[in-house]
Amino acid sequence: MTEYPLGRMTILAPLPWLPAGCAHFALMKHLGYGAAEGIEVTTECVGSPEAAVAGIARGEGEVCFVNCAFVFLARDRGQAVKTFASYSRRRNRTFGVPLDSPIRSIADLKGATIGLNFSDLLYLARAALRDAGLDPEKDVTFIELPGDPYDEKRMVQPVKDRAVQALWLLDTTYGQVDAAGVPMRPLPSPRMEKLTPGSCLFTSDGIAGDRRDALAAFGRAFAKASVFAETNPEATVRILWEEEPRARPAPGEEDYTLKRDMLVLRERLACASLRHTADPRWGAIDGKEMADWAAFLLEVGEIGKALPATDYFVPGLTEEFNDFDEDAVRDQARRYRAD
C-alpha cells in the first residue's frame, strides 16, 4: 500500500474535464511523480476558473491552476488565496482573428463582435481593451460561442459565418480552432505581453502557512510532468486518454483527435517554456512580476487597490521545485511508449 507522508493534494481543475493542454496533471498520478514526492494527487473538475478559485478559498481543495490575474481579483474580494508556482510563463489569453482578417490591432476591434468561450476571463479582455483606448462597454459586443469549451467544430461556426470578427482565446484554443480549419493569429498587446507569468498554481493562505513541504513536493512533481510533456508530447496525450475517459477519441476520430490534441498541447508547451525567461527555472515567480500585474490591473480599473507583492504569492519555493534530476526525467520520456 502506497504511503503519502505529506498527505493528499486535491487539484480543483477549472474545466468540465481535463483536455490536452492540462495533460501535465494526469501525468503526475499516472507516472508516479506525486507518490514519489510523498503526496497523493487527486483531481476534481469544477467547471470554471471562478469555481476553482472559490473552492480553494473555501478549503475544498489544495491546488488549482488559473490565469495569474485571478489572484489580484480574489484578494480584492477578500478571498485568502495565493499563487505558489508559475504554470504558463507567457500571457495565455489574447484576442485572435482569422489569418486573412484586416484587423491588425486591438484598437481595430472598435465596432466588432467578439466570441467568448470562458466568460470568467472577461475582466482580462476588458483590461486589454481599455489599455488600447477602447471602452469595453460601448466599443465592442461580446457573445458566448456555441457548444462547450471543447467543441471547436461548433465554436468556429460564427467565425465562418462572419457573425463574429474576433475571439477571446486561451492559448490552447488556438490549437483547437486550427484543427477545425480556422487558423487564427493573436493581436498584439504590448503591455500585457510583458506581464508574467500567464497562469499559476494557486493555493490557500492556510495551506501556504501549514503545508509548505507539500506545496514544494507538488511543484516538484509538476515540474517533472512538465519536463516529460515537453520531451514526449504524443505519449503525454495518450496518457491523458488513459486517465481521462472524456478526453478519449470517439470511434473513427483517433487521427483527428490526436492531431487536435497535439496542436493544443504544443500551444500550451510554448507558453510554459522556460526559454527566453528571466529566471529559467520551473515554477519561478518573483515579487516584481506580481507588483507589475497589480499595477496594470489597478490602472485599468479591474482592482480597487494594489497590495504588497507577498500578499499575492508564496516566495522561496522555486529552488525546491527544481531539486530533481531533469536529465533522468527526459530520458524516461524518450524511452516511454504509450499503449
Helix-strand layout with pairing:
Elements: E1 8-13, H1 23-30, H2 33-36, E2 40-45, H3 49-57, E3 63-67, H4 70-76, E4 81-88, E5 93-98, E6 113-116, H5 122-131, E7 141-144, H6 152-155, H7 157-160, E8 166-170, H8 171-179, E9 184-186, H9 190-193, E10 199-204, H10 205-210, H11 212-231, H12 233-243, H13 254-272, H14 287-299, H15 318-321, H16 326-335
Parallel strand pairs: 1-2, 1-3, 6-7, 6-8
Antiparallel strand pairs: 3-10, 4-10, 5-8, 5-9
Helix pairs in contact: 1-11, 1-12, 8-13, 11-12, 11-16, 12-13
Model description:
- This protein is α/β, with parallel strands linked by helices.
- It folds into 2 domains: 8-89 and 198-335, Periplasmic binding protein-like II (D-Maltodextrin-Binding Protein, domain 2); 93-193, 3-Layer(aba) Sandwich (D-Maltodextrin-Binding Protein, domain 2), CATH 3.40.190.
- Helix content is 42%, strand content 16%.
- The chain contains 16 helices and 10 strands.
- It has a 5-stranded mixed β-sheet with strand order 2-1-3-10-4, sandwiched between helices.
- Helix 1 (23-30) crosses helix 11.
- It is globular and about 60 Å long.
- 48% of the residues are buried.
- The model has no long low-confidence stretch (mean pLDDT 93).
